[in-house]
């Protein structure tokens, strides 16, 4: 079993941790790196044979939002930027939850994102649409071996936790467990409540494959579309933009220009009218005591944004 997991992880998981890697990576596709994405997308075609049911679609939608919250709240705002604090046990639970989105492990995710912020839209940025075009920024960069490496000096705070290193090494384990649970749920519903019209494989196709693929592309829009579409409140050195549509799709990540102006805050919708469901969820976790010390938006940043919001459109691009 362990040998099988290691083989699958070698195809779907990140490359080993390295001590040194060039800041400017070789943006060259390796065909074997396409395997996990082809597998997920081809799996969606299973809908042709399994059909659909309201319960299967509802589970798919629910898993999209539950896992999107985990990606933005934990992989992004916690592991990448450390915008709040929590216990070691809860940190691991959060990591497992986000890992169910099938977007590799928390250490790899944080490592790539920290690199992006240091080099946003310059020649070293692995997924800049300005440098490499839409296709590469959206998905192509994930098929280049240089981008699958964990650079140790970027994530020393995360590498000291063996449980997180385990999740990165076997990053397919949690998604496989999720798919298995979904099959069991569908089979149980087919047995006990056949009137719902679902079954094990239908639940896997909708709850895992379709939901995961839509979630994947939703997440990727922040690398691609959030640097191409929307408005710019802050004069950052990159092309990041704010988009209400992307914010709704990603539970608050669409306020990308805000985020690039001050990535150290737990809040990406800086103002009350900027919808940020993830921040609301994190405030709930703070209320029940699971997290604490949520980093706010500094008053000077808020004042800066308010001062610039009415400047001419020609100056905002």
Name the strands of the widest sheet in spatial order: 1-3
* Beta-strand residue percentage: under 5%
What is the terminal-to-terminal distance? 53 Å
Q: What is the average of the pLDDT values?
A: 90
Number of helices: 16
* Helix vs. strand class: mainly alpha
Order of helices and strands: HEHHHEHHHHEHHHHHHHEH
> Main beta sheet, described?
2 strands, parallel
Q: Tell me, what's the shape?
A: globular
The low-confidence parts are 1-11, 312-317
Account of the protein in words:
The structure is a single chain. This protein has helices at 2-12, 35-44, 47-50, 54-80, 88-99, 106-118, 129-132, 134-138, 156-159, 162-169, 173-192, 200-220, 244-249, 256-261, 277-287, 299-308, and strands at 17-18, 85-86, 150-151, 291-292. The longest helix has 27 residues, at 54-80. With 317 residues, the chain is an all-alpha fold. It is globular. The strands form two sheets. Strands 1-3 form a two-stranded parallel sheet. The protein has a two-stranded antiparallel ribbon with strand order 2-4. The chain has a domain at 27-233. The model is unreliable at 1-11 and 312-317 (pLDDT under 50). Helix content is 54%, strand content 3%.
